[in-house]
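User: My collaborator sent over this chain with a note saying "see what the structure looks like." That's all I know about it. Can you take a look?
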Amino acid sequence: MKKKKIVVITGAGISAESGLKTFRDSDGLWEGYNIEDVATPRAWKKDPELVLQFYNLRRKNVLDAKPNAAHTGLAALEKDFDVHIITQNIDDLHERAGSTKVLHLHGQILKMRSEKNERLVYDITGNINIGDRAEDGAQLRPHIVWFEEPVPMIEEAIAIAGDAEYFVVVGTSLVVYPAAGLLHYAPYGIPKFIIDKKIPYTSAVQDITVIEKPATEGVRMLAELLKGSK
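Assistant: Without extra context I'll predict from the sequence alone. Here is the result:
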């Protein structure tokens, strides 16, 4: 029997419980840095060394972190459902938890690319340094979609969302576009779930179940609800 398709959008709230901080926590800073200074093309142009240093630290944090019960809970749903995860997160915790279909909207911290050719992408677990070159001779940069850059994977994400039979949002405030708009591409009338510690105003969305809990607890509750709907 064909498994029903669940599309899950995940954001910083799911990785926060693994100890990875989000710049939206409270003061608009990310690990003490202004976003404009480390996560924009302008920052890269102005001070590439600072940007590399910032992402080298983030990469180390990700490698030190472990998937939590929300990550493993979503991976476990693959037993009964066709689960597609669209994540705004740059870490690999979904993959390490066992999820097999993960699309990274905003890039991946464990990859780097040529600053001139975004198709020249390489794996990395150590540091990127000034002077490290891609095969086209250009400086290597983190394979991250910075603020003010286009989101190349958004079309693929829209197509995935459009085929959902269940739609789930975990750990995101739904204020970062274009990712936030994906909810509106889900088919009309399908069951939708939103899991977050603080749920934004959602009354305009039809057929939505609100689970105002941290990701680990919310995903456990989601699994129970889905059990009864197979």
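A starting point for your reply to your collaborator: Helices lie at 12-16, 35-38, 41-46, 48-64, 69-76, 93-97, 154-162, 215-227.
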